[in-house]
Write a structure and sequence with these properties.
With about 180 residues, this protein is an alpha+beta fold. Helices cover about 20% and strands about 30% of the residues. The longest helix is centred in the middle third of the chain and has 12 residues.
């Protein structure tokens, strides 16, 4: 029997990427496609032992008695990105202070300005656990490619759904009906 040939999985098979962008070791290149939402995030365990994220808007009061691990409440930013590695629309949620500081500095800079549809960002991740370090570098400004904008139009993302623990990639029934009706007109 020839064991050099693998006929179990298709040649070139790769695990499909999820809808959330994750930093991997090395360079991580993406294009920011939306403004950020900001808030607080913490994880609580439900009655069945499942850990679930809870996100609150910045202006909402945090009720510390409801938070099972108050020392692990984190400030987050979330925005829609194009992942060059996965070649798809994803949500990037960041809590790392250094990354947030660097992105804020770029957005305030006269030379760079808002990163939304303006330039790619490369975040280089080195190390593991508490020794992880990130460096941020913008790529030269250039318009967002037409294919990326078209992919974004086909896959609208409602970041506000993160605050209600809904799927930000799932359309509401009302939205679907309106779109179907408008196609028939």
């Amino acid at each position: 029997m020839d064991t050099s040939k693998n006929d179990f999985l298709p040649q070139g098979y790769k695990e499909p990427a999820g809808n959330y962008y994750k930093f991997v070791e090395g360079e991580n290149r993406f294009r920011i496609l939306s403004s950020a939402i900001v808030g607080w995030e913490y994880w609580n365990e439900d009655s069945e032992g499942n850990r679930k994220p809870i996100r609150k808007r910045m202006e909402e009061e945090l009720v510390m008695e409801e938070i099972q691990e108050p020392d692990k409440v984190r400030h987050f930013w979330a925005f829609v990105v194009w992942s060059y590695k996965d070649e798809k629309i994803q949500i990037l949620q960041i809590t790392q202070k250094g990354i947030k500081r660097s992105l804020a500095a770029l957005s305030r800079s006269k030379a760079w300005g808002s990163p939304v549809n303006s330039y790619d960002i490369v975040v280089t991740r080195e190390g593991k656990d508490k020794k992880t370090q990130y460096t941020i570098q913008p790529n030269p400004k250039e318009p967002t490619k037409k294919e990326i904008l078209e992919a974004y139009k086909r896959m609208p993302v409602d970041l506000e759904k993160l605050f209600s623990a809904e799927d930000p990639f799932k359309k509401n029934e009302e939205e679907v009906n309106v779109e179907e009706i408008s196609k028939k007109i």
